[in-house]
Structures are given as structure tokens and as C-alpha cells.
Amino acid sequence: MRLLLPHPDAPSDDEGDGRLSPEALAELYEYPRSATRGVPWVRANFVTTLDGAATGSDGRSGSINTGADREVFGLLRALADVVLVGAGTARIEGYRPIAARAQWQDVRARSGRTDPPVLAVASRSAQLPPLLRERPEGAGEVILLTCERAPEDAVEAARAALGADNVIVRGGDGVDLDAAIKELAARGLTRILCEGGPQLMHDLVSAGHLDELCLTIAPTIVAGDHTRITAGPSIVEHLVPRVLIESEGTVLGRWVRADAATG
Questions:
Q1: Domain 41-260 is of which CATH architecture?
Q2: Would you say the pTM of this structure is higher than 0.70?
């Protein structure tokens, strides 16, 4: 990987030519210090093609991933306390409880995190994807974020599968993201990584809770009718680039909300 644009505190590389060691890559993507002091920082991670598609022909983001994207995907999970995802995306992409990849376990340990990341699934109907009902050894906990409109039998089924403390009901007709994020932060889960889908991404931006976007641009054109990384009514949010990295045609970047502090 080759560093194109550093942020002000960018680490040095190994070769002097902008090529990044794994340690330097991890430092470039570390959360701001405020996130270690109880202040939540919400980061989203998405991949898109050159023509703006967030999925390939099979409707999954996995089909447009590249090697560099998969590497940073694993790193971002290792740096996070909790991964936030919509239930639909979790179902389509085949999500399971998260275990930190061996490649990045040292990075996670150095930042004082010994347990695997928690997976928080947002669902208005409290429908927990089947693959998340069991927790394999070495994987993190699963939390369900839902709302009062969810059927009571679905909420009770989720409590039976995950434990009562891991089902959080916030909001009336939809999940109240402000209240949900505050609840996650109260549990010490302040480094929040959102992996989609597009509707959840839209709602985070609309609610003013997206601090940062990590966007991978795959060197591919797919045409067709595909979703974008956001879905919903028009909104405007200005982001500024902090990091740009290139690897075999893939461009990866960190874009931070213009008014967000990163210290």
C-alpha cells in the first residue's frame, strides 16, 4: 500500500517511498483520542465502484471487494469496540458474531481491547438474522437495537437468543440512533464502526452522527442498477479528506466531517 495523502499526525513509512507497513497503516486508521475518553466516534466503512455502485451483480458488497479493501476491513474491525449494521445487510452478507482476525490481534491488544468486537444489529422489527443466534467460541457478543413498534414475540425471541441485556429498545416507529449510540457509549463501546446498509448510513448522516467515512473505491465499472452507499431523501454533509492510500488501483480514504474534532 502506498500513502498518497497523510493527515497532520501521519506516521512515517518503512521504505521512505510512501509504502506503508502494517503498523503504520494501523496508526493511520486509529480512532481519535476523544473516543478513548468516553466520547463516541462513529465511523462508517463502505466500498464502491468507479461508477458509484455499492454492490456487484449479486447484490452483495463482497463481490466488488479487493485485496486492499479486505485488509483494511479487518483492520477497522480490530480497532472498533462495536460494529453497527442494519439487519437487512447482516442477512444478505451472511454476518456472524465477530472474531478479530489474527493479523490484527496485536493491534487490538495494544489499544487495551482484549475481547472481540461487539456486533450491534439495528432492526425496527426485531428480526435477528439466523446466523447471529449462536455465538461461536472466540467471537464477540451480539446486541439487537430495536424500537417499540417491533412485535413483542420477536423482541422476546431475541432476548431468549442474546440475553435480556443485549436487546436495547430505543425509539417509537424506528430505532432512535441518538439514544442507541448513547447506550452503546454508556457500555464503554465508544469506537463505533458502521458497515451499512445504505438506509442506516443515510439515517446516521441525517441525525448528525456520522463523524467519519472510510471509503474504498474499487477500480471497477459494473453499470446496471445498483444501490449507492446511502439510500433515502436528499441530505447534504461536507467531509474533508484526511488519508488517501492506493494499492494496485484501489483507492482507500478517510473522510472526516468538516466540523468534527480528531484530537
A1: 3-Layer(aba) Sandwich (3.40)
A2: yes
